[in-house]
Write a structure and sequence with these properties.
The protein has one domain (10-79). The chain contains 4 helices and no strands. It has helices at 10-22, 27-39, 45-63, 75-79. It is elongated and about 60 Å long. The relative contact order is 0.05.
Length: 85
């Protein structure tokens, strides 16, 4: 395995380390994940959207919120239809 040394300013390092911690990863793991994605063969748009959907679903599950159909907005609320008749 190769080793990589980076020189970055303190503020960027602290911010990146904090973000990695929030994501439950080490900074090294986060950089490695990014590099693997950067060098991987390009994914299709469909595959990218599926990956992003799964990421959002996981974040939603971790938030502890429950989804209920009763929380849905009406059609008028969605389209903000408050026109004067």
């Amino acid at each position: 395995m190769k080793q990589l040394t980076l020189q970055i300013d303190d503020a960027t390092f602290e911010s990146a380390e904090s973000q990695a911690r929030k994501a439950g990863q080490s900074l090294t793991g986060l950089v490695l994940e990014w590099l693997k994605g950067f060098t991987a063969s390009p994914e299709t748009e469909f595959a990218r959207l599926l990956r992003e959907e799964e990421t959002l679903r996981e974040q939603f599950r971790k938030s502890g919120r429950q989804f209920a159909a009763s929380e849905r907005l009406s059609r008028d609320e969605i389209h903000e239809r408050h026109a004067v008749r």
